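PROTEIN FOLDING TASK:
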Amino acid sequence: MAPNDSAETGGGTRGTAVGRRKAARYIVPVAVAGVAAATIGLVPALASTGDPDLPKITAQELIERIAASDTERLSGTVRISTDLGIPSLGGLADAFVQGGGAGRGGASADPQERMTELVSGTHTLRVAADGPDKQRLSIMDNASEYSLIRNGDEVWGYDSGSDQAYHATADKSARGSGEKPAHPAPEGAPATPKELAEQLLETAGPTTSVTVDGTARVAGRDAYKLVLKPKQGGSTIGSATVAVDAENGVPLKFTLLASAGGKPVVDAGFTEVDFAKPDASLFTFTPPKGTEVTEADDAKAQHERGKGPDKDLGKGLDGLFPGADRLGAGGGEAEDTKIIGEGWNTIAEISTPGGTGLPSKESDGMPAEAQQFLDSLGDKVTGKFGSGTVFKTRLVNALMTDDGKVYVGAVTKDALVEAANNAS
C-alpha cells in the first residue's frame, strides 16, 4: 500500500491548473446544480475487492498525475448518490431543488433543469466520451431515460418519457477564437468522479491538507486514494476522498464526508469503465417523429421570465460550488453579493431585493399555522446583527436575517452567526 504522504495545496498545486483543464477535456458536459455543490452509502458494486499493492507515491505526484492525464476516450456506468439531509416536502421541495421545473415554463429536456436531479437521491448514469467534442451522459430511470449528447457544435438533450428535446448550437467563431461559445454545452452539477475531483482541486489552497491514504480497487481497476481535508475549523465538510486510477490518472471514485459524521454526503464512482474508443453511434441523435423541440434561446428566455429572489441565493452559492447559480430561476447575476473569508470557510453575503427577511405573522398578517410551519424549517438565532433564521443541510447552511441579509456557505451555524455579527 502507498504511504500516507502529504502535500500542501499552495503554489505547486495551483501550477497544475492548466494541466487539470487539459485533463478535463473528456468530461461529459452537464447542467447545473450545485453542488453542488456539490454530490450516500456505498453500494456493493462500488465496494473494494481488496487493496492492491502499488508503488509508493506522494500526494503531489498523484495530483500531478491527475493533471497530466490525457485520457479522452471512455465509456462506463457511474453510480452517484447525494444526501444533503434536506427534509422531504414532496412536490414543493422538488420544485425548489429543480429550479422550478415545468412550473416555470421550462422544457423538461432542458439540461439546466434535468441535471439538478443529481443533487438528491441515488442515480445510475451511463457516460461516454471520444475526444473533446463528443460526449454523452444518460440518466437512467425505471421507465425512461434522459440523455445529454454533444457532437461537435451540436448539443441535444432528450427526455424519452415526455418525448421532449432541447437543442443548442455552439458558435464556431467563438470556438476558434478561444472565447466562450454562444451556446456551449451546458455546465453545472458535476456528474462524474473526474468532474468532482477537478472542481475540488481547482479551488484547493493553503487551507487544505492533502495526503495519500492507501489504495483501493474500483470498477476492477487499481487506484490510489487521495484525501483532502480542511485545515480550518468551522466547515461542514469533513473530508473528500478521490480514488485515482493508478495507470492513467483518471479519478474513478469521489466521496465527500460531512464533519458531523454519518454516511457520505456525496458518493460517485464508476461501477464499470472501459477506456477503449466508444461506438460512434452513441454521439448521433435525431429527434423521433413528433418530438417537441425547444431551442436554447427559447429555453433561456423562459428562464429569464422566471427570475426572482432565488436567483440571488443561487449566485451566492456559485462562489462556493460552480454552477449553483442555476439552482435559481434564471441563473442571473446577483445585484449585491459579498464574499467573506477564504478556503473551506468561505461565506457569501447576499442582500435580498427590498431588504426584507422572511414574512411573519406580526408584520405580514401571516396565519399562525403558516408561521409555525415556516419556523419549523430553521433555527431562530440572535446577535449583534439582530435576529434571523438558520436553514441547515448536511453540507450548506444559510442564515437569513430579519433585515433581508443572507449568509450562506459550507460552514456551521455558529460560523454564519459570527459572520453576520462581524458585518454589522
About this structure: The radius of gyration is 22 Å.
